[in-house]
Design brief:
7-stranded mixed β-sheet, about 220 residues, alpha/beta, 7 strands, about 20% strand
Length: about 220
């Protein structure tokens, strides 16, 4: 019941901010969000004719990059809501509405799995990682990206002022809601990057963590 309540709450938040999420995301990331997504896709090590799954696809920015870079690939996007996803992309990729903790796919279904800015919104991150491991083929690659609290003294202080004061103010004002206070707090109370590494290792992955922005944005590249 707690997981279902979390899913409903997250779905409601993203439904409410869906029309402005991408614009605000670009503003608060100082325009770097698309560059980070490109780095994520690069580490998927794409080649022709793969089966790829993008979890927590949102508007489909990562999904679109995968589709256009992976020739002949079968691309599936998954999200808890369909209110954000680019309807034009549905002509080219399969779109599935489902919580990421319950992937509705058979074992060893995909060669690549990705997720960007998803994990801190999950009700059960361990279950999600178990599900990703289950649906990946042997030798498959999972790349996860998210935002974290940086620990370097000056960076941490500047990040705190920006992300926990300015970002909620801007986002809430732009959307007429308090949803960006929630989104900021998902970072405040999220795991450290090294904890994510350990969780992935415990599931059976070989893991490389990559700092993309002064300890505030990390990639975890996990191979089954």
């Amino acid at each position: 019941m707690a997981m279902m309540a979390k899913h409903q709450a997250v779905k409601k938040i993203f439904d409410e901010i869906s029309t402005k999420y991408d614009l605000i995301d670009t503003i608060i990331s100082l325009g770097l969000d698309q560059h980070w997504r490109k780095v994520l896709v690069k580490h998927l090590d794409l080649s022709d004719d793969l089966r790829c799954l993008d979890c927590g696809a949102g508007s489909g920015k990562v999904t679109e990059m995968i589709y256009f870079q992976c020739h002949g690939c079968e691309v599936t996007a998954l999200d808890i809501t369909d209110s954000m996803f680019n309807s034009e992309l549905k002509k080219y990729v399969r779109f599935v509405v489902s919580p990421a903790e319950r992937l509705p796919f058979e074992d060893s279904s995909f060669d690549r799995v990705s997720s960007a800015f998803l994990t801190r919104n999950l009700a059960d991150i361990d279950r999600y990682f178990s599900e990703v491991y289950r649906v990946l083929k042997r030798g498959g690659i999972f790349v996860n990206m998210d935002i974290y609290n940086p620990t370097r003294p000056v960076i941490s202080e500047l990040f705190g002022i920006y992300f926990y004061r300015f970002v909620p103010f801007l986002g809430n004002k732009a959307t007429g809601s308090k949803n960006y206070t929630y989104l900021a707090n998902t970072v405040r109370y999220f795991h450290r990057p090294e904890v994510i590494t350990q969780k992935l290792v415990e599931k059976g992955f070989s893991v490389q963590s990559i700092d993309l922005f002064f300890g505030a944005v990390y990639l975890h590249v996990a191979t089954k």
